[in-house]
Amino acid sequence: MIHTCWRLICALLLVFLPTTLLAQTKLTPAQYQQDFDYFWTTVNENYCYFDKKQTDWAKVRTYYGAQLPGITTKAQFTRLLENALNELYDNHASLSTNLPDSRRLLPSGTDVWVQYQQGKAVVVAVRAGYGAERSGLRPGMEIVAVNDVPIVQAVSLLLGKCLKTVDEAAREVALNQALAGTHTTPRKLTVRVQGKRRDLYPDAPTAQLENIRYPRLLESQQLGTIGYIKINNSLGDNRLMAAFDSTLDVLAATTGLVLDLRETPNGGNTTVARAIMGRFITEEQPYQRHEFPAEEQQFGIKRSTLELVSPRLRPYTRPLVVLVGRWTSSMGEGITIGLDAMRRATVVGTEMARLNGAITSFRLPNSGFGFNIPTERLYRVDKLPRENFVPAKRPNPDTEGTSDAGLAAAVQLLQNTNKP
Fold this sequence. Notes:
single chain, alpha+beta, Transcription Regulator spoIIAA, Pdz3 Domain, 5-stranded antiparallel β-sheet, 5-stranded mixed β-sheet, 12 helices, PDZ_sf
């Protein structure tokens, strides 16, 4: 019996051993080269937004390929791949592995969003409930330095080395990477407010962005006769469907509903999204258009599809407001443009994360590292690119941090809608 159990254990180990060894075995120079070639070719053939970029992807192969002879560890190879992928300056492209000192991902790993305005790095959004907000950072403040490095210098260090020219989009991504910081170094942000400089410490006493936890999949309450549901970054969790259904049933008698998607930075899946949207419609409708450029590039035949949403039991037919912001990402953006296209909701908020398309995951043959890149273009049904959607109703930014201007605007809109 003992020998039989041992043989079973050994058999199971043989099944799982290749994956384990993949993470531990030292790779040869030829294997690093093979992985890099696979990475470069896969991006070259499948990434669907090169036309929006100033990236010279052929130069990426030469520039980073020349560094391969010096790569002897997986940590070094990870950093090389991070830098190569950064040449796309695309927040929807990422590695599935990272180093302790890797940069936080945008937007899920940051709590502030900054844009250039008249040559200055100005805060346009602060993530509610996180370190940047608690430290006193507010929209309208100018960022002067990060960890005592002048912002111009900090940004220049993060710009790609293989860009034909540095466009506004590349500068904004680098700017926000600088503000996001790394997993290991606490941030010191120097800001200018009314002509005076202040130092803020978003990661003190602890780096909250490394340990984000939510008490539940969603939150809900009733604000007078208005219902409110906030999704806590769970659009990729299939358990949300049942939780959402039961919560919406409780709020069925309300005169209007606010669906808050401002804390959905990790995206999600279309099953959960369609389940949510299906509770707000009474007939099947298209909500999103897909295009597949790789197929057209390979065969010269254009392919596009419309994705449909089917109604579900107990539809909520009262007025609906979708509340969005900079941390409404990917699938959250899809739900937003879908409900907007179906004329089922009014969208209130600021620009969303503006992530490009739908991603596909790939895996390198030797290191086993995964990477994700946009391979499908996504549009609202009327062919507006999803990343270009901007809410028609925008609340005034909360520069004092004393109220939720977005929620107040959403509730006021519903109250006005319900007036006789």
